[in-house]
Amino acid sequence: MISLEMIGYFSEQQGSQSYPALFMKLYYPSAGNYIAIVDRLFSMRAQHMKKVMDEVIKLPIYSINAPAIIPDVDFSDHRSFWKYGYPAIMITDTAFYRNQAYHSIADTADRLDYEKMAQVVYGVYHYVLHISSEA
Predict the structure, then answer these.
(1) Cα radius of gyration rounded to whole Å, the chain
(2) I need a labelling partner for 102 at 20 to 30 A (CA). Which of 7, 76, 122, 132 fits?
C-alpha cells in the first residue's frame, strides 16, 4: 500500500521544517523542500522506492524507517495496514511539521506547489511500473 499524505507544500526557507523528535534534526534538512518516504522499522521498501524515484525526479527525497513510538510516524492510512502486518509506506511533505496553516482557513490551494506534486506522482508511477516488472 502506498499512502500519498500531504504532498504539495514546500518551502526553501531554512527553519521551515520541524520534526516530531529532536534527534531527527541531525539527519534531515531544516528547509521543507523535500518529500519523505516513511516505512516501518526493518523494511527496505522506503529505500528501494527512494532509489527508483530518484531516477526520474529532481525533487529531494528522504526515507525513514521508524518505529510507531515516534509521534505521528503512523499518522495516516498506512497505519491500519501496518497494524495487520501488510506492507505499506507513506509519502508525505510532513504536513503540520512544515505547513503552519495545515487544516486551517489559511490552508488554501494557492499555497501548494503543483509542479512538485506532479513530480511526486510521476515518481510513484515510475516506482509502481518498476515493481510490477519485477513480479
Answers:
(1) 14
(2) 122
Total domains in the chain come to: 1
Domain holding 34, by residue range, is 2-134
Could you give the CA distance from residue 8 to residue 132 in angstroms, rounded to a whole number?
Answer: 26
Record the cell numbers describing residue 43, joined without a space: 523494511
User: What is the SS3 assignment for 109?
Assistant: helix
Cβ-contact 56, 123 below 8 angstroms: yes
Whole-angstrom Cα distance, residue 101 to residue 70? 23
Tens digit of pLDDT for each residue in 64-102? 998 878 888 888 888 899 899 999 999 999 999 999 999
Helix, strand, coil share of the chain (percent; to 5) = 35, 15, 50
Q: What is the DSSP letter of 13?
A: S
